[in-house]
Amino acid sequence: MPHLQFQLFLKQLCISYVLLIGFSSSVHAQLEFESPPIDYLKAPAHNPVARLQEDLKAGRVELDYSEEQGYLPALLKALNISPESQVLVFSQTSFQLRKITPQKPRAIYFNDETYVGWVQQSDLLEISTADPSLGAVFYSLEHTPATQPKLIRDQGHCLTCHASSRTKNIPGHLVRSVFVDRRGQPLLSAGTFTTEHSSPFSERWGGWYVTGTHGSMRHMGNVTVSDPDALEKIDREAGANLVSLDSLFETSAYLTPHSDVVALMVLEHQSTMHNHFTFAQMDSRLADHYDGIMNKALERPAGYQSESTVRRFQAATEKIVQYMLFCDEFKLESPVAGTSGFADYFSALGPTDSQGRSLRDFDLKTRLFKYPCSYLIYADSFQQLPQPVVDQVLSRLEEILTAETVEAEFAHLSDEDRKAIHEILSETLPQWKTSR
């Protein structure tokens, strides 16, 4: 009998622990990603940067060093990142803040998964990437000539900023808009904005350079604040519709003279989309982990899913679907056009359906994309989500795109939009075909 009582005590203790962790995760959205089953700092990474490091180590790839930009051009080529993706940020809001000023902005280059940061006169390159299992993983590359350059994985220092409420408390990316003084220092007491596709144009790009035209709309980019006590006097007009930055700083040090407005808008969308993927992936794995503990304690079947786990899967799924279909996207009030050629480059990446349509086709008149369904549905970060999440997302998309009456949350999608998106996915997404 004492043995039985002890067993019951252990079960109750186990249940209390799981309920406590589950409550913390669902209410506060603070996921325990540094311990199993995620084990962020110790688990092996499987992403483009990790694969490149393996290739460098094995001698399958070499990086050429240039006197002007060091390893930057070679690294971008190795990671398949176009220089046309360049955007420039002059706010001192990153790791190398002391080297960043309005006269020497930090350059960021990106593709669907990976971001590279370059700062003038710096001894390292900053790299981050979206890992399907770990979320944002951060690396550095010493910016000095070496026989065998090495990409070094960060051991948690970057998470101070990149695992906060602004990234849904998971390792993620964010685009931040701040009021900046003439030295590039952010005036954080004045408030900041985390920018995504729902953000008002007027709150975007504080501390960033922006090249391109956008009609009557105004943003916070290209200018600094001279009087911290009079933020309403920020001269948005002076920073509007700039097609050249040559009058603001020396652009010849950079791979291109642009900080393309279309590239910025894509960057904002995809950084948050990846964060939704990461949250769903980690939350689902943790829920399964806790279910495993509970099932063992309560002697339930090994694959049993609790109602709370099912609800968590559904909640994560719905957030992905709503963001993927651009719910609450800010409606453009004027046409937008970039300067670097990024829009043409990005659109050509495809994939396209039999009519030549792609989820990467831009609208740029009233919204970002012509067919509002995120191109990141093709990314490893989505396709390698736990299968129940993928299945639920695809099922939900099918339901929304084929419904006779559209739900209120998706009323921004016309019947023509829904039909086109459905046809594109049917022809270009292998998982869509097999899940039907």
Task: Give the arrangement of secondary structure elements.
Elements: H1 2-28, H2 48-58, H3 72-78, E1 87-89, E2 106-110, E3 114-118, E4 124-131, E5 135-142, E6 151-153, H4 159-162, E7 176-178, E8 192-194, E9 208-209, H5 261-297, H6 307-324, H7 342-347, H8 380-383, H9 387-402, H10 415-428, H11 430-435
Antiparallel strand pairs: 1-2, 1-9, 2-3, 3-4, 4-5, 5-6, 7-8
Helix pairs in contact: 1-5, 5-6, 6-9, 9-10
Can you offer a commentary on this structure?
With 436 residues, the protein is α+β, with helices and mostly antiparallel strands. It is built from 11 helices and 9 strands. The protein has helices at 2-28, 48-58, 72-78, 159-162, 261-297, 307-324, 342-347, 380-383, 387-402, 415-428, 430-435; strands at 87-89, 106-110, 114-118, 124-131, 135-142, 151-153, 176-178, 192-194, 208-209. The N and C termini lie far apart (54 Å).
How are the strands ordered across the major sheet? Answer: 6-5-4-3-2-1-9
SS elements, strand count = 9
- Count helical runs: 11
Q: DSSP strand (E) fraction?
A: 5-15%
Unreliable sequence segments: 1-29
Query: Order of SSEs, N→C?
Result: HHHEEEEEEHEEEHHHHHHH
The description of the largest β-sheet is: 7 strands, antiparallel
